[in-house]
Amino acid sequence: MDNEDIFIRLKETVKVTARTNIPLNYLADMVTKRELKHSIGQMNIKLAFINEGQTVVITALDLIKRIKAEYPNMRIHLVGNNDCLVTVKGKALRRWQRWLGVGLVSLILFFGSAMAVMNFHTDVSMPKVHQQIYWIVTGVELEHPLIMQIPYSLGIGFGMLLFFNHLFRKEINNEPTPLEVEMFLYQQNVNQYILAHKDDHDLHPGDHRS
Amino acid sequence: MLLKTSIAILIAFANGLMVGSGLVSFLAIIGLVPRLAEVTCTERNLRLYELAMVCGATLAALEPVFPVIFYLPDYCSIIPGLFIGLFVGCLAAALAEVLNVLPVMARRVGLANDIRLLVLAMVVGKVIGSLVYWIVPGF
Hey, is the C-beta of B118 within 8 angstroms of any chain A C-beta? Predict the structure, then answer.
């Protein structure tokens, strides 16, 4: 088994259920001889202790150390990522907790947007503008051109749906909505923050890991 | 007199240039047009959309100078109403704070998968809010 090559690419994020031993093939994709791949993939990286919901950073150095311990002459090549974020899954939320959260946020957003749109109308003197447009179209001065304002209000709703692409949904190409993209970016920023502060998340640097 | 007039014209033209470029950069920053083109798969017609925006802004700015009245029946005002509403809806959805607040909120309460429901709550809120604003007297 001397002088074999192994190519390792760490995954970016991994979620594990609460346990302290993580097999290497959870953490990384690797390319090497088949029999080696199996035995190395089964090797564990041991974490001293972890709590639910906690995030631990495992670096490529940890993997190298682990592999070198068993195969000292292995040539290890790293491809890509140097760090892997291991998140320990917490208990799943109960159904009622979930719905409580959904309901609460939905109510906040509902009343918040209702108020925001009223503020907006006052800010930009929308009633004046509507009267003016109604006057241009019909030549009649009317204080409340409701026939125009009700379609306007419905238009706001459809416009938002249009923006989030709920209207022309193409199931095939699976294109994410702007919110999903934003959600992804947010998650990525959080991950980057954790990596930048990984000393705080590295509970047992160096020798405590076997 | 001629000097004064030409200075006034120059200042007004510069003013218009600034306001116009401000409007364009605002629309460009919120990324509304690319998004609409993407949704409708009409990225090829971006030039047309630019033209539409320029014409709309210019005509609206000229309206006080050359007032026009069409004397159409009142139901014709549904068309501008609806399309202004569509635009405001897109604008409201595109505003950065909406796009930034929702992911944080959804993550806090652990419902990243139900974000569609949250959007729906927001949309219904906007429509109801707008209707109340117009229909209920006193606003």
Answer: yes
